[in-house]
Each structure stands twice: as structure tokens, then as C-alpha cells.
Amino acid sequence: MRIDILTLFPEMFESPLSCSILKRTQDKGLIDIVLTNIRDFATDSYRKVDDKPYGGGPGMIMMPAPVFDCAEYVQKLSPEKGRVILLTPQGQKFNQEKASQLSKEKRLVLIAGKYEGFDERIRIGLGAEQISIGDYVLNGGELAAMVIIDAVVRLLSGALGDEDSPKDDSFSDGLLEYPQYTRPEVFRDMKVPDILLSGDHKKIAEWRRRQAIERTKKFRPDLLKNGVRTNQNHARQDSNLRPTD
Ligand SMILES: C[S@@+](CC[C@H](N)C(=O)[O-])C[C@H]1O[C@@H](n2cnc3c(N)ncnc32)[C@H](O)[C@@H]1O
Q: Mutation test of ligand 1: which of 85, 137, 146, 150 has the most ligand atoms closer than 8 Å to its C-beta?
């Protein structure tokens, strides 16, 4: 997979991309992340990429020409046409399902905004999909791009030590993940549930499924509004589940 990031602050990506799973997946050649500075496409000697809003009002707006030129240049860097995503608080809210969809693409082009956001003609002209990482306003799209990349990359085959890791993750089948324990068996009078020490894998799987449902009802009842989906890990159908009060 190739991910192009169009940004005014490529240096913001240095640290997140140079450690842990994001570094490993790049080293292994599973992912190629390419940063392009939108400012390199400014047309004047001041390298200006923003201007005042027509009609007045606070702040500055990202001008269309540098973003268009940058996006057109970047698309030509690889024969695979990228799925263009504009990062904006006005976009469709990012979630695990969207991460899974995006992880199946061969190429993504993420455009990070700054200032008071994009001139509207950027959205219209590029025909870009808009994605938000939540109902709050960040200073720029860089952190949003990093969130998306991080969530997408862990779903790529070969990214994690254990291929099965993401299958039980929270949200992967509409539930929160079951509670997890590691050593020691007893910590400050809190004991690991006996079932997890039993070695009975069938019973453990059933217990985990029940726990996942219970904690979803308790902490995120909104996830159960449409019943519980099942994935290949879970043979049982829990379609009558509804959130409890
Ligand atoms: C200060 S924000 C602009 C917000 C804009 N004035 C509005 O109210 O919709 C600057 C940039 O940060 C990014 N951004 C801010 N919040 C975001 C969010 N929740 N999700 C994705 N990107 C976001 C976008 O790229 C945006 O263009």
C-alpha cells in the first residue's frame, strides 16, 4: 500500500512514522508513506498558500491553486490512482469499519488542512471524500492523518506479530473487546478469573464473548442499537441484543 500525505508541516510526521509498527511496516516494505509539502506548490515568491476569506471573517483560508497543483503532481508519482481524502471536521466520522475499507485500497492520498480550512473549490474540484476523526476542531489535519494511517496500517496483512490480533479488537464485530489479563495471577487481591486458567478453549471463547457483550452494554450501549454482528470467530448469533439502561 502507498499513502501520500499532502501537508504544510511534513516535519510533524517524523516521530510517529519512525517508531513501532509504523516504522516496522515501512521497513518490511508493506507500506510506502510519501510526504509532499503543499507550500512547494505556492506560486509567489512569499510561498503563500492562504488568504483572507471573501465576505470577511476571522482567519485565513487555504488557497485552491497550491492544493490542486500539489494533488495533481502527487497523483502522477505512481501509476495507481489514489483515493483522495480531505481531512476536515465536516467529513464523515472515521471508525473501524472505515479503517477496514481503507486498508483494502492500494493507494490513499490524504490532504491535511490548516488555518480556517480549505477553499470550498478544493472539495468540489478534487471530488475528494471528506473524513473527520471526531466532532472537535484540531489546528490542522496532520494529527487526523496520523490517526487514520495508524488505524489502517495495523489492519494490513503482516503488520502485526499475530495475524489474528485485530480480529478480536474492539469494534471489529461491533463490540468492545473482552477483558484481558496477564501475570501475575493475583495482583493486590484481584484475581484473574478462574476460567482463563482452565485451559478449556471452548469455554474461554464463550466467556469472552459474553464479557464482550456485557461490557459493550455497560460502556457503549450505542454500539448495540442494531444488534450484534457476528464475525467468523463467533458461531453464535446474538441478534436480539439491545442496550440495557
Ligand atoms: C482549524 S481547522 C478548520 C476548521 C473549519 N474552520 C471548520 O470549522 O470546519 C484546520 C484544519 O484542521 C483539520 N481538522 C480539524 N479538525 C479536524 C477533525 N476533527 N478531523 C479531521 N481533520 C480536522 C482540517 O484539515 C482543517 O482544514
A: 137
Minimum CA distance residue for ligand 1 atom 6: 116
pLDDT tens profile 52-110? 999 999 999 999 999 999 999 999 999 999 999 999 999 999 999 999 999 999 999 99
Residues with CB under 6 A from ligand 1: 87-90, 112-114, 116-118, 132-134, 136-141, 144
Cβ burial, residue 192 (10 Å; 0-12/13-18/19+)? middle
Overall pTM > 0.85? yes
CA atoms within 13 A on the CB side of 227: 7
Cell of 120: 470550498
Q: d(Cα 243, Cα 226) in Å, to the nearest integer? A: 10
Q: Which tens digit of pLDDT belongs to each residue from 111-130?
A: 999 999 999 999 999 999 99
